[in-house]
Write a structure and sequence with these properties.
The protein is an alpha+beta fold and 235 residues long. Helices cover 42% and strands 20% of the residues. It is built from nine helices and seven strands; from the N terminus they run ααααββββαβαβαβαα. It has a five-stranded mixed β-sheet, sandwiched between helices.
Length: 235
């Protein structure tokens, strides 16, 4: 990189510097991708400040008097913190630490975890997605095991990004297959989408349910039926 390019990068916004690294590495940075490896030092703080400044511009373009309206004087800062540190933090932080244990007892029976409450935002309108996830695991003697709370933490890491539900369940399945190395994995998500409740058709009753089946759950119809019949018991 030339000296001119270096100087340009130091004067650009922090988002431009992060984007430059991603593009230079040929790494995708869609709304539901994690980019933590390309954020350095105090850049997350600086990114939050940049988002706040641009959110202030959005409020001004909406013709909201943030100077005299006490309700919105600090809205830009609050929204920036919410996006960067809370509802979209799964884009900007590394995967939560988790300890994987060997399957010493060679467990090979169906395990079901859930329902796990999930929260996200539709990447089309940034409206909330609120729902539940069930996980079915068929371990083998070579599988890894993780604590129950780790399922919730890993799923939350995926969901705290702008998502569409169809892609979110695939990302959850990919992550858990990589961590657990099971014979089979089943994911079911049921969620309310506020882009339908709050705007558009304003239908308050519709939910979306979708599933991903891997390995033995895909091959074995009886195992699939057992998982689906058990997951709603007591809920």
């Amino acid at each position: 990189m030339s000296k001119t390019d270096n100087n340009a990068m130091t004067t650009d916004s922090v988002s431009s510097r992060i984007r430059y690294r991603l593009q230079n590495a040929g790494v995708r940075f869609h709304a539901n991708d994690n980019i933590a490896d390309f954020i350095e030092g105090d850049e997350l703080d600086l990114l939050q400040q940049e988002v706040a400044a641009k959110m202030q511009g959005v409020l001004e373009s909406l013709v909201i008097d943030t100077v005299n309206d006490h309700n919105t004087q600090d809205t830009a800062r609050r929204v920036a913190k919410m996006f960067v540190r809370e509802v979209f933090r799964g884009r900007y932080v590394a995967s939560p630490p988790n300890t994987e244990f060997p399957n010493i007892e060679q467990l090979n029976e169906l395990m079901i975890v859930g329902p796990i409450t999930v929260r996200s935002a539709c990447s089309h309108h940034l409206c909330p997605i609120m729902g539940r996830v069930w996980v079915g695991v068929m371990p083998n003697e070579h599988s890894n095991l993780i604590g129950l709370s780790k399922y919730a933490r890993l799923i939350d890491w995926i969901m705290t990004r702008p998502q569409i539900q169809e892609e979110a369940v695939m990302q959850i399945a990919d992550l858990l297959m990589d961590k657990l190395q099971p014979d089979g994995l089943a994911i079911v998500m049921e969620a309310d989408h506020f882009c339908m409740h709050w705007r558009g058709v304003k239908d308050n009753n519709s939910k979306m349910t979708n599933s991903v089946m891997r390995g033995s759950f895909l091959r074995d119809a009886n195992l699939r039926r057992e998982f689906l019949s058990l997951m709603h018991r007591g809920n």
